[in-house]
Amino acid sequence: MLDLKTVLVVALATASLQAVAWVFVWRAWRHLYELKFLAAGFGAIAIGLFLMVLRGAEPAAPAIVLHNTVIKLGLVLLAEGLARFLGQPRYTWIGISLLVFQVTIWSAALAIDPDDIAIRIHSSTVFTVIMMSVMCLGLARDRTQPPLLRLVTIAILAEYMAASILQSILEYRLPADFDGGPILADRNAWYLLQGTLFLIALFACLLFMVSSRLSTDLRRKHDALLQEVEERRRLESRLTASIEAERALRDEQADFMRVVSHEFRTPLAIIRNAVDMIGLVGDRSPEATRERLSGIGEALNRLFSLMDRFMADDRENGFQPEPMQLGTLIGDVRLHFEMTARGDRLRFAVADETASLHADPDMLGTVIINLIDNALKYAPHDPSIRVEARQEEGSIVIQVRDRGIGIPPAEAGKIGRRFFRASNAKTSTGTGLGLYVARKFLTYHGGTLQLTPNNGEGTTAIVRLPSSREAFDADLPEETAA
Q1: Hey, which end of the chain has fewer CB within 10 Å, N or C?
Q2: Any idea what DSSP says for residue 449?
Q3: Among the listed residues 89, 83, 152, 163, the one whose alpha carbon sits nearest the alpha carbon of residue 128
Q4: Separation of CA 13 from chain center
Q5: What DSSP state is assigned to residue 428?
């Protein structure tokens, strides 16, 4: 037969072990600070039961109130810890109010009739039902824990509330001289025994909840880590691509510098040296030779200036537009090819030589010369290269038409890239810089270059430039016009 003292010892051992277990769990996972309240709740219940085990057969009234209030404090702490753990609203004021109610009712009942425990049992039932209803409300609102686990925990709390209500009913219905049954030696021992089972079941549910929270946190951290790894890989890929692009640009720039140095400086230095040598014996040369030498010197000075300005890529020093007439531009181009003995194949047609435009004479002259050079080079059997210039709708249009090898349709989009040469032009000498330089210089002027195939054969290069200063400024790219 189980007496009340034995059941109290079992309940004390259970609550004490659970309090110690929660202390260790909290120390293992310090970020779950709510577990401190659970440890304190089970600890308060253990202390209250320990005081009840130690008290004598005739305890004083204050001792009875204190021991039971400590146990009720443990229940309040469990409710507070559960609400904090689930992230639900905390009704701390309800717990404090019920503790005050507990102390007041029990003190009054012991002062009026110490032998009548009915009022104390009924007040404890009210306390238990209200506090556990608050806990059930928090579990019902929660969405962080598995639904089945929440339902099981609510059922355990409901069972204890039902047991408390049943104890009040039995206290009300049983005769005053009823002491115990065949198994439990005390009429209240069964309530304490099922309370011990309740603590074990609640402890298990709370452990499962902590385990579920830790698993969720672990998955969240794992997902965050995977996302960070993916982001780092993405950034690493972008960084690698940027480094490769920068390396490619540097290699391209180095190639460009080598090509320009070889293609421009070497022949120009040879020509300059030849001009200097001829100048030493200029007094014995005819007048025509002197004029040609003067023209060569001026051309060399212009080409050296162009090269330095183009290599510097500085608009302030490199781009120097000024008002000029279309006839003057075409005349300078014609003179260039006459001096190089290649003007006999060129047919010039200028609709209005007085048409004005705002341009850099050297840069724009280089554009037209490069286009004509290409036509002469890639149309070796064409006896006449047509160069036409006219003004139309606020623009200056210059066309260079040939009947040469043309541009393969599949490679039309690549023509004009730096160092690119069409597949049908490999047999001819060249660097693939002529059209690139032409497009670059036209960009300064707000102009465009269009390469179109002729109906029969060959290519027509069409240059369009703004004729007025206002149109020139409006057509400039933003970074050039700044």
Answers
A1: C
A2: E
A3: 163
A4: 55
A5: S
pLDDT tens digits for range 327-375: 888 988 888 777 767 778 888 998 888 888 888 888 888 888 888 888 8
Extended strands (E) in 319-420: 322-325, 346-350, 356-359, 385-392, 395-401
Which pLDDT score, from 0 to 100, does residue 178 have?
A: 46
Q: State the Cα–Cα distance between residues 102 and 124, nearest whole angstrom.
A: 7
Query: Euclidean distance between the first and final Cα of the chain, in Å?
Result: 102
At 241, give phi and psi (nearest 5°).
-65, -40
Rounded CA-CA distance 264/267 in Å is: 6
Query: How many other C-beta atoms are found inside a 10 Å radius of the C-beta of residue 7?
Result: 23
Rounded-to-integer distance, Cα 400 and Cα 334, Å: 13
pTM (2 decimals)? 0.52
Please name the residues in contact with 142: beta carbons below 8 A apart, sequence gap of 6 or more: 86, 87, 88, 150
Alpha-carbon distance values, 350 to 175, 384, 387, 464 (Å) = 131, 16, 8, 15
Alpha-carbon distances of 136 from 152, 229, 428, rounded to whole Å? 11, 41, 91
Query: What confidence category does residue 154 fall into, taking pLDDT thresholds of 50, 70 and 90?
Result: very high
- 351 in helix, strand or coil? coil
Condensed to tens digits (0 to 9), the pLDDT of residues 98-121 reads 999 989 998 998 888 887 788 888
